[in-house]
Amino acid sequence: VGKDGKNGGREGKAKRPRKLLTIADWQRAARQRLPRPAYDYFRSGADDELTLERNERAYDDWVIWYRVLRDVSAPRLATTVLGQEIQSPILIAPTAYHRMAHPDGELGTARAAAARGTILVASTLATTSLEEIAEATRAPKWFQLYVHKDRGFTKSLVERAEAAGYDAIVVTVDTPVLGRRLRDERGGFGLPEGLRMENLVAALAEGPPDGSTLSHYVADRHDASLTFADLAWLRELSHMPVVVKGVVRADDAAACVSAGVAGIIVSNHGGRQLDGAPATIDAVSGVVDAVGGRADVLVDGGIRRGTDVLKALALGARAVLVGRPVLWGLAVGGEAGVVAVLELLDKELARAMALAGCASVAELDRGLVARSRAR
Ligand code: GLV
C-alpha cells in the first residue's frame, strides 16, 4: 500500500487507512472487503439504531480520574471468569455467520481466542458446527444458546456442547423475536450460497416453518414463552454453569441470580433488538449492585477502545465481550486479523491502565470513574 495520495488518488486516500491503528480503522477496512449485504448485516442495529449508537457514545460520558505515582511498569491483564483463568478480560461475544466474513470462519475466531488466551463464545447461529469449533482449540470456550420451542432439540444442543467440551452455556434472553434490521429487510438479506447454520441442520431438516430468513426462523422456532422458571430446567440439562445474556435491569439480574445462574451478561444484543434500550455501560452498576457478588457480571455493546474496557471494569464488570470488532478483524485478515484486533485492544487496555495508575485489573475500582456531567 502506497502512502495516501500515491496509490490511486482520492479513492485510495479516502478508503484505505495506511495502518490499522484503531478499531474504527479495522471497520473501514472490513467495509471495503465485505460484500455490502454482509457488511450491513454485521454492522446494523434495530430500527433507527438509537441503541446501537448510544452503546458507543455512552462511554464518552464517563471520565477517568487517573491515579499517579503507582508502580505501573508491568500492567497485568490476566483475570478469572467463572473461575477460569484468562490472559485478558476481553472475551469474544457470540456473533452469527463467521464464514460470511472470511473462509476461516469460526475456526479462525476460535484459534485466535486461544492464541490470545481468552474465551470464544460460539454462537448457535454459527456457520461451523459447535463440534468442529471445539476441535479447533483446547482453550476454554462457551456455547451461546437460543432456547427453541422444541425443547428436545434445545436439550440436544446443550448435550452436544457438553460432550464437545464447552465450559459454559450462555443463554440469550433478549431475542423472543428478532429485532427489525431495516437494511437486511430492504435488501432481502439471506445467507450466501454454500453457507448454513450448521448447528441447526437437524431442526431445519424438519421442513417448514420457514428457515429462509433469520427473522422467520426466530419467529417460528425460538421459544417466546421462556421465563425465569425455565432457567432451572436449563441448569438441570448439564453440568455446565449457565450465564444469562441480554439483561439490563437490576431486578431481572437479581431474579436470574435467584434462579442459580453463574453469570450475567449486561447486553442489549449490540443494539440489534429493542431500539430505545439503554446503553449497556449505563446498566452495569445497577446490575453489579443487585447481583452483590453472587455471580460474575460481564458487559458487551459499544466497546471500541481500551479505555472503554477500563471504564466497564471500573464500574464493576468482571470482563467484557466484543462482537463487531472481531468480525472486522476476521473480514480483513481471517484468524490473523482477529488476533491483531484482540492484541490491539489488549495493548490499548494495558496503556490505559498504566496511565490510570493501575497495575492489575483488580485495581480498577469505582473510584476511578465518574460521569463527566450531572444527569
Ligand atoms: C442474531 O442473533 C443477530 O443479532 O442477527
Task: Identify the notable features of this structure and list them briefly.
single chain, 375 residues, alpha/beta, eight-stranded parallel beta sheet, two-stranded antiparallel ribbon, 12 strands, 42% helix, disordered N terminus, binds glyoxylic acid
Fold topology:
Elements: H1 9-15, H2 23-33, H3 36-43, H4 50-57, E1 62-64, E2 79-81, E3 84-86, E4 90-92, H5 98-101, H6 105-116, E5 120-122, H7 130-136, E6 141-145, H8 151-164, E7 168-172, H9 182-187, H10 201-205, H11 214-221, H12 229-236, E8 242-247, H13 250-258, E9 263-266, H14 284-291, E10 296-300, H15 306-314, E11 319-322, H16 324-356, E12 369-371
Parallel strand pairs: 4-11, 5-6, 6-7, 7-8, 8-9, 9-10, 10-11
Antiparallel strand pairs: 1-12, 2-3
Helix pairs in contact: 2-16, 6-7, 6-16, 13-14, 15-16
**Class based on secondary structure composition and strand pairing:** alpha/beta
Mean pLDDT: 94
What strand order characterises the main sheet? 4-11-10-9-8-7-6-5
* Percent of residues in β-strands: 5-15%
Shape assignment:
globular
Counting DSSP H or I runs of 4 or more residues, the number of helices is 16
Number of strands: 12
Main pleated sheet:
8 strands, parallel
The residue fraction in helices comes out at: 40-55%
Cα gyration radius (Å): 20 Å
Separation, N- and C-terminal Cα atoms:
46 Å
Q: Low-confidence runs (pLDDT<50, min 5 residues)?
A: 1-12
Could you tell me which ligands this complex binds, including any ions or cofactors?
glyoxylic acid
Give the ordered list of helices and strands.
Answer: HHHHEEEEHHEHEHEHHHHEHEHEHEHE
